[in-house]
Amino acid sequence: RKVLIVYAHQEPKSLNGSLKRVAVEELSKQGCSVTVSDLYAMQFEPRATRNDIVGCLHNSEEFNYGVEAWEAYKRGGLSNDLIEEQKKVQEADLMIFQWFSMPAIMKGWMDRVLVQGFAHEFPNCYDSGLLKNKLALFSFTTGGSKEMYEKGGISGDIRYLLWPMQHGIMHFCGVKVLAPHICFAPEYVSEEKRKEMLIAWAQRLKTLWKEEPINCSPEWYFK
Amino acid sequence: RKVLIVYAHQEPKSLNGSLKRVAVEELSKQGCSVTVSDLYAMQFEPRATRNDIVGCLHNSEEFNYGVEAWEAYKRGGLSNDLIEEQKKVQEADLMIFQWFSMPAIMKGWMDRVLVQGFAHEFPNCYDSGLLKNKLALFSFTTGGSKEMYEKGGISGDIRYLLWPMQHGIMHFCGVKVLAPHICFAPEYVSEEKRKEMLIAWAQRLKTLWKEEPINCSPEWYFK
Question: Which chain B residues are Cβ-neighbours of A104 within 8 angstroms?
Answer without folding.
Answer: 46-48, 104-105, 107-108, 110-112
